[in-house]
């Protein structure tokens, strides 16, 4: 409970800091005044807002909420992925969801010939869904059907193919590369309430589904035979878990691009702190991942004069941690 209280306080503090930090230099007193008007409902209509009001109300607030949603989606999806594959270093990207979402956005940008906008969210969700179905179909046929290793190998293979196709299209069509380059690097810059409203139902549905699975996932983590002996249904658990991962990862990727390490580091670190019980790991991932995501987004705004994509910061933070984790004896023994 102490960890939950401290985590909640830290998330609230980071959310407040996020509203005061950005590429535009706005005085703290001005931010407080604008937020005060926003809370009391005295803000002018969008067409009558000045530059500072537009930056705070239409950019920083949606961006802060979006960072929290994206972090929550990736964190819970990562914990669930590690449970279904029984691999503490698994990541939602192993199922190819990110690569499928990116391919759909690249194809959509090439066909529609316009800049990324509201439609790319639906394109990314469609790509994530198609990829998840393909991974499940491939992984559930033949011998050892629906084994964790087979699902992961299917996802890795499809991710490699989809990433190669996306790269080929982008390199052969420079205008497509120019449209998607910031999104592909993982960025929350320029996001508005439209993306926030679009992905919120998917994140909410995925979180609800995931929070209904801890007992089944605990049984599954012991192995299929042990899960069946305890009254579990491994096949059904994997199908439902795959649906939740698709919703969470697809929506997060649609909003912020193919981010890495958030879904890997947070569940693994929490497992070292709290133990292997997913009745704690899933809810705590829902709290801890937004903290890491929001921290990375704040650093991305201030670390250099020109704002960095948040995906660059998460990679710089995550790579050393991943190296340290892989050097641990318990990880080497997996």
Automatic annotation (TrEMBL):
Record's keyword annotation contains Transport: yes
Main location class: membrane
Subcellular localization: Cell membrane
Recorded family membership: Belongs to the binding-protein-dependent transport system permease family. FecCD subfamily.
Gene3D superfamilies in the cross-refs: ABC transporter involved in vitamin B12 uptake, BtuC (1.10.3470.10)
Keywords: Cell membrane, Membrane, Transmembrane, Transmembrane helix, Transport
Membrane-spanning segments: 61-81, 93-113, 119-139, 151-173, 199-218, 239-266, 303-325
Protein name as it appears in the record: Iron chelate uptake ABC transporter family permease subunit
Bilayer topology: Multi-pass membrane protein
Domain of life of the source: Bacteria
Xref: InterPro entries: ABC_BtuC-like (IPR037294), ABC_transptr_permease_BtuC (IPR000522)
